[in-house]
């Protein structure tokens, strides 16, 4: 578990002591994240958004994961968790980014314990590569909204 970014020996011990190593108790990683209290809250009623607070869950695991998230954000060389933390902290703030990265860590822990293999990081540029085309479209729309004419480059013949 210490192969995860931001998770040290003490954090791994707290997490393992609380959630255990038996993965058959929960049908999916999302169920485990909800039990820990790190599932995303998105309540809505009659089209009106309610509070997005997360559940209480285990206070020890919650504290350990939210403490590990900013540590993951400072990892060098950059990991996918560090990139996720920085990207979200710039838009939503450090505390919300920590909760989101803690959720991702719970999912990673669940997959690691189910497969009995160490963490394999996707790399610091994973999100940029995944969203490259969408970012280009978003920026083109933004420039057009400002009154500029955006001409896409000619399609390359392969």
Write a structural description.
The chain has helices at residues 9-19, 29-36, 59-73, 80-92, 94-115, 126-130, 132-145; strands spanning 44-45, 48-49. It has one domain (9-41, 52-131). It has a two-stranded antiparallel ribbon with strand order 1-2. α1 packs antiparallel against α3, α2 crosses α5 and α3 packs across α4. The chain has seven helices and two strands, in the order ααββααααα. It has 158 residues and is mostly helical. β1 and β2 (48-49) form a beta hairpin. The mean pLDDT is 77.
Summary of the model, kept short:
By secondary structure, the chain is mostly helical.
Give the key terms.
single chain; about 160 residues; about 55% helix; two-stranded antiparallel sheet; mainly alpha; 2 strands
Q: Label the structural class.
A: mainly alpha
Overall domain count: 1
Helix content: 55-70%
Regions with little confidence, pLDDT below 50 for 5+ residues: none
- DSSP helical segment count: 7
Question: What is the radius of gyration?
Answer: 19 Å
> Largest sheet at a glance?
2 strands, antiparallel
Overall pLDDT:
77
What spatial order of strands do you see in the largest sheet?
Answer: 1-2
Q: Distance N terminus to C terminus?
A: 44 Å
Order of helices and strands: HHEEHHHHH
Strand segment tally: 2
Shape: globular
Approximate strand percentage: under 5%
